[in-house]
Write a structure and sequence with these properties.
The complex is a heterotrimer.
Chain A: E1 2-6, H1 14-29, E2 35-39, H2 47-55, E3 61-65, H3 88-108, E4 111-118, E5 122-126, E6 140-142, H4 146-154, E7 158-160, H5 167-172, E8 179-182, H6 183-188, E9 197-199, E10 207-213, H7 214-218, H8 222-256, E11 260-262, H9 266-299
Parallel strand pairs in A: 1-2, 6-7, 9-11
Antiparallel strand pairs in A: 3-10, 4-10, 5-8, 5-9
Chain B: H1 2-20, H2 24-39, H3 44-56, H4 63-75, H5 79-91, H6 99-110, H7 116-133, H8 138-148, H9 151-154, H10 159-168, H11 172-200, H12 214-220, H13 225-239, H14 248-262, H15 268-302, H16 304-314, H17 319-336, H18 339-356, H19 361-375, H20 383-392, H21 396-419, H22 422-430
Chain C: H1 2-38, H2 46-67, H3 76-80, H4 85-117, H5 130-157
Classes of the chains: A alpha/beta, B mainly alpha, C mainly alpha.
The structure holds sodium ion (2 copies).
Pfam family, one (chain B): DctM
Protein name (chain B): TRAP transporter large permease protein
Subunit structure (chain B): The complex comprises the extracytoplasmic solute receptor protein and the two transmembrane proteins.
Chain lengths: ~300, ~425, ~170
């Protein structure tokens, strides 16, 4: 049986490569019974449609940056709380703490959780030296979701909404002067043509999650379920390793492009940690007990 | 062999529906439907609705109806008349006369809009009536418009280059710069063609423009001031950082409303007429885009474009052979898909082939754009043909025939790009933007 | 019969006016977004709202565009078949109406699904998606009605009633 797997990122992105590895693994392990056909680059369904497509069986398996669906349920945003989990180890721990609640939430949406892989940590891109939150005041900051808009508000930056496709041009024309994203974004978009500084504030590590349509999952034989789960575990590991490896690669790339790549100064770190606490509290207000148990589980 | 079977069915249904006169958007929808029913067990209707909703409500597309509206407003002002009054004394003596305004107009407007349909409607709305009034041959008017409007994709900003850049992770500003010279060269080639064809043609007898002294020509140029202002405002808003490429279209609408008002041609009835006209034209294009989005999804499920690209990859060609194979491949694909879908559906397979063959990825972006430009004017599915049919009422076959010379000029352009790759690569390599600059 | 005719024509026109208003709204939203940015204010979700307006404007205008001959098609065969044109038109409108009802059915389904799944926009607007999708569904249904209307007119009156088939401003060679 062929399972079409829509993916949002280009074929050469490490998430897509990991998913391809997973697909190959499943094909081997089920001796061809489940043949997952990947469709990278949003060529089947664009990113925003993938969750719904899998939910409703338009595709049987897919990958999505689940935090993009935080409007629907704040719990989906567990991996994008600024300055809560700021390293790969933290990210793994947070993911483990969140997994039961996440699996339950996904199951209620007719989805079965398979695995997730973190992006390299999110850093701060800027056009000048930033030593404290005070330096950010009034800077035109690209806000693309509720969390980044809130961050802009807390740091008294001027939020500008720019769609991903227009980011490069917005930077070139000065519509935006700063944004938070992983090193890979800056590397792929070659932002050194327009910006000068990258601060490794490691704000959060968003994760791409791979999920299966629950009905399709329930229809699998026990052997095939096991095979798929095993492949998922392997893929999660290779993806994580790849992400770690690439973090440095992207940072080097940014530096080579001519950007100053540096960890944040003490004041900036302290300021950001303060924002992080505020936003964690706000997230807990939105998610209640479930959120509290995730944060407790993570902090222990 | 199932691929051949699939191709056969797709083509049969497509030609049956399109050829018998079913509306283009609905015909595409029908073809996609048949394809999905045959090749996947997924729920067809729901997948269609999902993808059509996303395609129809996309932010980057909002510029299109606005540019169409801008064209409708300008068409109802004295602006186009004025523009011709300013330009004709200068251009009338060129071989080919005012047909050049089509090309120059499209080139300039290409710097304002990122799509070829918007370029086409705005310029065509203004130039077609003026050129007809001067008795230029219809075929020449339509053909040059169809061809030159494709410059909207090559001269920055360009939707196709944005999609390509995001797909292959190449700098979009670099790609934009790479498009400048090839765009200008292509425009020049169109103009040379017009000059030559008009001198050779026996039915090229436009009404002669009255003689004018040099000073009179200069004085007449004052009529160009409003157009120049409008263009400066729209392009300026983008490059000065007041607006993104999409938002610049809003500047265009407001600017043309202001122009119409200052000229005294803005009445309630011209306003509503322009608005209703723009609404209908946008709806016409939206229906086709909806059908095309569903067809593209259907193609994705069948895996056909990817399979064909895979096939080419398996031939192990030399660099030149590979480019020729891809040229043919994209021309054929372009007959049935719009440019952006062609890029998105095939890049996963084509990109590694290109990198392996050592082809410059920025250069290839321009190659792709030229090829995708051709797709705009090749039947049965060519957007510029559709838009022109909506605008002029000509049969698609007439428009397609009128555009054939432009098609061959673009093929020639591909070879020029291969012979002189610096055309595309020189500018991005030599304008190194300083960090922070 | 006459009341029905008037009701239908009113429906098409009403939708067209609504579509035009959505187009104006889209312009205003984009302008507001720019002004907000220049003045340091935020307009969360502006891009999404503009997108909804565009989808609504497009779909609600489908029927009017059809009635005014704005939707394009390949007319070669239609002119070539001469006196059999009525039969070919019958085929075109039958296929067209089928496709449009298919579209309408699933556009309505989309609204129902979105409502049932509680699907919310991923942009900063966080709009429940069934609301903007309703405009698309309405437009699709009215479009299907319009095509059926013309189909029935061909069957019973012999003519589809689209005023200017090719809304051209000029000659054809
Ligand atoms: Na352009
Ligand atoms: Na074509």
């Amino acid at each position: 049986e062929t399972w079409d797997m829509p993916l949002a990122y280009p074929a050469t992105n490490f998430h897509t490569e990991t998913a391809q590895g997973f697909a190959d693994c499943v094909r081997d392990a089920t001796s061809g019974e489940i043949d997952i056909q990947t469709h990278p680059n949003g060529s089947l369904f664009p990113g925003g449609d993938i969750k719904r497509a899998v939910q409703t069986g338009q595709a049987l398996i897919g990958e999505r940056l689940l935090s993009a669906h935080a409007n629907e349920n704040a719990l989906f945003g567990y991996d994008s709380i600024p300055f809560l989990a700021t390293s790969f180890d933290d990210s793994v721990k947070l993911n483990e703490a969140a997994q039961p609640a996440l699996e339950e939430l996904l199951a209620s949406q007719n989805l079965h959780y398979l695995y997730s892989v973190p992006w390299p940590p999110q850093g701060l891109y800027a056009k000048k030296e930033i030593n404290s939150a005070a330096d950010l005041e009034g800077v035109k900051f690209r806000a693309y979701n509720a969390a980044t808009a809130r961050l802009a508000e807390l740091a008294k930056m001027q939020p500008v909404q720019i769609e991903a496709a227009e980011l490069s041009q917005a930077l070139a024309t000065g519509v935006a002067e700063s944004f938070v994203s992983s090193g890979s974004t800056g590397y792929d978009e070659k932002v050194w043509e327009h910006l000068t500084h990258f601060y490794q504030v490691d704000a959060w590590l968003p994760r791409n999650t791979i999920f299966v349509n629950l009905d399709a999952w329930n229809g699998l034989s026990e052997e095939n379920k096991t095979a798929m789960s095993d492949c998922a575990a392997t893929a999660a590991e290779t993806g994580l390793a790849k992400s770690k490896e690439l973090t440095q690669f992207y940072l080097d790339g940014l530096a080579e492009g001519g950007m100053t790549v540096a960890p944040p100064g003490d004041q900036l770190r302290t300021d950001f940690m303060g924002f992080g606490e505020t936003m964690t509290t706000e997230w807990l207000e939105a998610t209640g007990e479930q959120g509290q148990s995730i944060v407790d589980g993570f902090k222990n | 062999m199932s691929d051949l079977y699939a191709i056969g069915i797709f083509l049969f249904v497509l030609f049956l529906l399109l050829g018998s006169g079913v509306w283009v958007g609905l015909a595409l929808l029908g073809v996609a439907w048949v394809g999905m029913e045959l090749f996947t067990s997924r729920p067809v209707g729901d997948a269609m609705a999902t993808i059509i909703w996303t395609a129809s409500s996309s932010w980057t597309l909002t510029a299109l109806p606005l540019f169409i509206w801008m064209g409708e407003i300008l068409y109802r002002t004295r602006l186009s008349e004025d523009m011709f009054r300013g330009l004709s004394p200068w251009m009338a003596r060129l071989p080919g006369g005012l047909v050049h305004t089509n090309i120059v107009g499209c080139t300039v407007f290409a710097a304002v809009s990122g799509s070829s349909a918007a370029t086409l409607t705005t310029v065509g709305k203004m130039s077609i009536p003026e050129l007809r009034a001067r008795e230029y041959p219809e075929r020449m008017i339509i053909g040059t418009l169809a061809g030159a409007a494709t410059l909207g994709l090559m001269i920055p900003p360009s939707l196709t280059l944005i999609v390509y850049g995001v797909t292959v992770r190449e700098s979009i500003s670099k790609l934009f710069m790479a498009g400048v010279f090839p765009g200008l060269v292509l425009a020049l080639m169109f103009m040379v063609y017009v000059a030559v064809a008009s001198s050779l043609s026996s039915n090229f007898n436009p009404k002669p423009e009255p003689y004018m002294s040099f000073m009179a020509k200069v004085r007449n140029s004052r009529f160009l001031i409003p157009v120049v202002c409008l263009i400066v405002v729209v392009i300026g808003s983008m490059y000065m950082g007041f607006a993104t490429a999409t938002e610049a279209a809003a500047f265009g609408v407001i600017g043309s409303l202001v122009l119409a008002a200052t000229q005294g041609s803005l009445t309630w009835s011209t306003f509503t007429e322009s608005l209703m006209g723009a609404t209908r034209t946008s709806a016409m294009i939206a229906l086709i885009l909806a059908g095309a989005a569903f067809l593209s999804l259907s193609m994705g499920f069948t895996g056909l474009p990817r399979g064909l690209a895979d096939l080419i990859g398996s031939w192990e060609l030399t660099r030149f052979q590979l480019l020729m194979a891809l040229l043919v491949f994209y021309i054929v694909l372009g007959c049935f898909l719009d440019g952006i879908s062609s890029v998105v559906l095939t890049m996963a397979v084509v990109e590694p082939m290109i990198r392996e063959a050592g082809i410059d990825i920025v250069w290839f972006g321009i190659f792709i754009v030229v090829v995708v430009e051709m797709a705009q004017i090749t039947p049965p599915i060519g957007f510029n043909l559709f838009v022109l049919q909506g605008m002029t009422g000509h049969e698609m076959s007439f428009i397609a025939r009128a555009a054939i010379p432009m098609f061959f000029i673009m093929v020639l352009m591909v070879f020029i790009l291969i012979a002189f790759p610096e055309l595309a690569t020189w500018l991005p390599e030599n304008i190194r933007q300083r960090p922070g600059g | 019969m006459k009341t029905l005719r008037r009701a239908l024509d009113g429906l098409y026109l009403g939708c067209a006016i609504l579509a035009a208003l959505f187009l104006v709204a889209m312009l205003l939203i984009i302008v507001a977004q720019m002004v907000a940015r220049w003045t340091g204010v935020t307009f969360p979700g502006a891009a999404s709202y503009a997108g909804y307006c565009m989808a609504s404007a497009s779909f609600l205008a489908f029927a009017n565009a059809l009635n005014r001959g704005a939707h394009i098609r390949v007319g070669l065969l239609l002119t070539a078949v001469g006196r059999y044109r009525r039969w070919l038109e019958l085929w075109c409108f039958a296929i067209g109406a089928t496709a449009a009802w298919f579209l309408a059915r699933y556009a309505v389904n989309l609204v129902l699904w979105s409502h049932q799944l509680g699907d919310v926009s991923q942009g900063q607007d966080a709009t429940p998606l069934w609301i903007p999708q309703s405009a698309m569904a309405l437009g699709a249904v009215v479009f299907a009605i319009a095509l059926t209307d013309h189909l029935l007119r061909i069957i019973f009156a012999g003519d589809h009633g689209i005023a200017a088939e090719l809304a051209g401003e000029g000659s054809t060679e």
